[in-house]
Amino acid sequence: MVSLSELVEEARLSARALLDYGESFFNPTIRLGVTGLSRAGKTVFITALIHGLVRGGRLPVFEALASGRIARAYLAPQPDDGVPRFAYESHVKSLVAERRWPSSTVDISELRLVIEFQRSNGAERTLTLDIVDYPGEWLLDLPLLNKSYEDWARESLALSRNEPRVHLAGAWHAHLATLSATGREDEPATLEAARLFTDYLRACRDDRFAMSLLPPGRFLMPGNLAGSPALTFAPLDLPSEGSAPDGSLWAMMARRYESYKDIVVRPFFRDHFARLDRQIVLVDALAAFNAGPEALHDLEAALTGILDCFRVGRSSVLSTLFRPRIDRILFAATKADHLHHTSHDRLEAVLRRAVNRAVSRAESTGAAIDVVALAAVRATREALVARGRDKLPSLLGTPAAGESANGEIFDGNTEVATFPGELPADAEELFKGGAYRGLSSAAADGTDFRFLRFRPPLLAPDAGGEPALPHIRLDRALQFLIGDRLQ
Amino acid sequence: MSDRAKPRRPQTFRLDDPDVVVVDTEDAGRPGRGSIQITPEADPAQLPVPVEVVLPARRGVRWGALFWGSVGGLVLLGLGLGVTRLIEDLFARSEALGYVGAGFAAAAAIALAAVIGRETYGLVRLATIEKLHARAAAVLLSDDRAESRAVIAELLRIAHANPRLARPRAELAGHADDIIDGADMIKLAERELMTPLDIEARRLVSVAAQRVSVVTAVSPRAMIDVLFVFVASLRMIRQLAMLYGGRPGALGMISLLRHVIAHLAITGGMAASDSLIQQVLGHGIAAKLSQRLGEGVLNGLLTARLGLAAIDVTRPMPFAALPRPALADLAKDLLRKQEDEEK
């Protein structure tokens, strides 16, 4: 049965790919996958990318734009009528006018950008860029596609018994002890278990712990499915042998888990991830630095699981026809503006270490890989702070309201200079147990890193009306992702 | 945290704190009053970034090449026919003469093959160096580790012919397995391999420029000037190409000369004239020297400019870690020499 449903899924994907190929034959299109867990900065990246292309930003390394070969870029009606449009204008407004980061994404949205350019040999062409934005939590579901309910329940339970999660899972563990997997199915108990499990996932996401590996993602960001049976299940303490008896709690949970995969995960994967051409993986490593080594390990595990789901490799004619592959992946450590530029290489090294497995897998298939530290919108300036003989490479910026440092809470209007701590020269050291102290294990003033959250920069409007957004290495990212198609 | 006994702790300072002084970049270094001084740094994103001009790749049928190729073929056929006839005639007259003629023809054919082989080798070498230059420039942008290793391996192969680079080569080969990012690896290779060559290249250009300036200052006729400048420039370009690992023959020299002149035209027409005028006027040289000597200096500077363009073309790596030799440095050498002679 399983193999049959997988076959049907494959056939659907291939049919879709064939159709896409026909379309893009006359109208070259790149589907850019912007991948990232929640708060990695997907929405800001997409907004800055579109702004840079449409307005013509300062992107010297992006050759096609810098040398003037891009005549213009404009937004076009998107291909899918059933998906909301990416609210580009309101995101730009909140960034530039209100100096506020866009609020977190709760639903999927899509945008199509058309670039008119002249090739190096003089021919005039257009390139269409399709970009999808979605809540990062949903990404956590992709690894579930290859897991049975039993696998998932065992893994989730084992994970919740580790530090520091075990303190947060107390209420759920207590309730779990009252349930018997082989007992009769029981709707009120299931509801209660799902609620407690969701509370535990939410607590793990707090800034102090910054855990990443929290499937299923729709529990955190339910969208329009809130309260439906497909979202009402939880891991059980299962016996290591045997299968679910008919009518038992176990059987009910497993059934709902499977329908969660069918209703939520498969369509999401099919519509948005199975047919990407290029991919950028945005990773916010700084939140993990703030929280502690456990958060960093969690991030590594989550990324590895997610990246295993993508189809990566050098494209060939046959693969383009039936099984599209991602032939370029860029791993980007976002929020690089929260570090002095002398530390960017070290941040890149940490990211390279965290996605090591995914990188070597992609390299062995022939896909092009790059790792970069970037800031899609640069919120800080750099400064040197001299105190006595100490010289600290620091950052100037306005922390968001509610951020705190040295026991002081900022109001969102004070400018500060901050030195966030020193990344080690060898990235490996951060991954050792207890390598550094974060908010999860130490008081706020005893941590080894403190990355404040800054407000977007104050921009003076220039002659062109809307000011260009400052950035760090956004141009290099663009050159890598779409530069070769604009030759 | 191996490089330092204790990592520095994160710290935050309010800018409106009375202890904090914000120092302007301009008067940095002046002691301020507060105990904590903050110096904003120049925004790297606001600094001008040079954008390399990419010449459009040539596409389509190259009619010129086709024309010269077919004409060359016809001439060769004609020559072959003529030689065969000649040898037949010689055999008709006397067998011994025929054998001598055939021997000459065979020797000429062998020599021609050798010359063609050498020219081809030279052209291939030049193309390799040019491609290596482009690849190294691409790695500097993309920071690709695997590609950087490939570039280094190729570079070491070319540098193998130069015995003076034995020690830098060994050092670089020792770094090949270290964990160094792509762009940094290229820069490291540039520092190791190119430093001695750059010094030598600068000396070559400087010597050629001085020779030209002296000869044109004392030569009696303009025709001799022109001839001498041409020969000296050719010699300099050839020496530079040999230095950086090229082996140009006659055809190679022609293609190299075309590249150098094209490079000069693209990058530096304006810059050259600007800095030239500045150099000449700045030193008040025109007033101090006689007209002839002034002309000599100008010719020398032009030769130096040509030499710099030749360095850019023949060098297998772009200038990234090392400073590009500037006309000002060479001009200084030149002027100093002229002034010494004046005294």
Q: Give the helix level of chain A as a range of percent.
A: 25-40%
Q: Could you tell me the strand content of chain B as a percent range?
A: under 5%
* Cα Rg of chain B: 28 Å
Number of strands of chain A: 12
In terms of DSSP E residues, the strand content of chain A is 15-25%
Instruction: Let me know the largest β-sheet of chain A.
Output: 7 strands, mixed
Overall structural class of chain B, as computed from helix and strand content, comes to mainly alpha
Based on secondary structure, the structural category of chain A is: alpha/beta
- What kind of sheet is the major sheet of chain B? 2 strands, parallel
Distance between the termini of chain B: 61 Å
Q: Estimate percent helicity of chain B.
A: 55-70%
Average pLDDT confidence of chain B is 78
Oligomer: heterodimer
Number of helices of chain B: 10
Number of DSSP helices of chain A?
15
Strand order of the largest sheet of chain A: 2-3-4-1-5-6-7
How would you describe this structure to a colleague?
The complex is a heterodimer of chains A (487) and B (343). By secondary structure, chain A is of the alpha/beta class. Chain A is built from 15 helices and twelve strands. In chain A, a hairpin with a 2-residue loop joins β8 and β9 (390-397). Chain A starts with a helix and ends in a 5-residue tail after the last helix. Chain B is mostly helical. Helices cover 70% and strands 3% of the residues of chain B. Chain B has helices at residues 63-93, 95-142, 145-159, 166-175, 182-218, 222-243, 250-282, 285-288, 291-314, 327-342, and strands at residues 11-14, 20-22, 36-40. The longest helix of chain B has 48 residues, at 95-142. The chains are: A alpha/beta (487), B mainly alpha (343).
